[in-house]
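Quarterly update from the structural biology core.
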Amino acid sequence: MTGSEMKAYREKYGISQRQLAQQIGISQQRISALERGAPDLRSDQVGKIDIGKPHPSYVPVEIIEGIMRVREKNTASKYPDPESWKAIDPKRWHEAMLRHVLACWNDPYSVDPESGLLHLEHIACNVAFMLALKGGEDN
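Predicted structure, tokenized:
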């Protein structure tokens, strides 16, 4: 990506040089130099432009595994239909999340006695459900 392409991208998406630098993993000073016409000696963006794309590797895998444990445990025991959560009013997921928050208030690594899993894992799952259900609504 050339300096002029970087500048056009930043203007199009309303981001700063600092934000772009974080997205593509180079210094803000380098972006500034490229936008002023310095030659681009980097070749990692040649052929495949990843600027502006999500970075799934930024998400700790532990939260994904925690949600998965809750889903597998509950699907095997309480809720045999793995898609049944979609029919639940988001307010009920909010209440469930708050119950788990209160249960681990003094000990964030406490275990839910019913499932044997961390309350934090249940909280993550409840939040995931709430975000998924909100997905179609205007923010």
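The chain has six helices and no strands.
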